[in-house]
Amino acid sequence: MMNKERFNEVWSEHFETLKLYVPIVAKVHGKHHPEFHEVRRLYDVIEKKTEESGQEAPNLVEEFSQLQDITNNYTVPDDVCESYEAVYKMLKELDDSYQG
Questions:
Q1: CA distance 40 to 3
Q2: Terminal-residue alpha carbon distance, the chain
Q3: 56: which DSSP letter?
Q4: Which of 85, 100, 66, 75 is CA-nearest to residue 17?
Q5: Sequence-distant (≥ 6) Cβ neighbours of residue 23 within 8 angstroms
Q6: Taking 70 as the threshold, does the pLDDT of residue 1 lie above it?
Q7: Model confidence at 72, in pLDDT bands (50, 70, 90)?
Q8: Burial class (CB in 10 A: 0-12, 13-18, 19+), 82
Q9: Number of H helices, E strands in the chain
Q10: Taking Cα atoms as reference points, which of 51, 100, 47, 94 lies closest to residue 71?
Q11: Choice between 41 and 56, residue whose per-residue pLDDT is larger
Q12: Across the chain, what does the average pLDDT equal?
């Protein structure tokens, strides 16, 4: 069950960095890691749903499930930069906080 307070805390902690890193990583690594374009799309959905939810808990079960599949449970590829790795780490923390 979602821990809204913990999720909001992690979201607040990582939001600005993710907003900056996700588009850059997609641009830099998207050619060799086309799956990251789907990661970006799902991140955009998570951002939109979280912002629109206001005081309610956003329903992100499907988005996190898809992220887990696409990223092989947030496994960082060997040939990527620290920013790519940081995005996966932050998304995993969000996912973990969402799962409770």
A1: 24
A2: 6
A3: S
A4: 85
A5: 40
A6: no
A7: very high
A8: exposed
A9: 4, 0
A10: 94
A11: 41
A12: 94
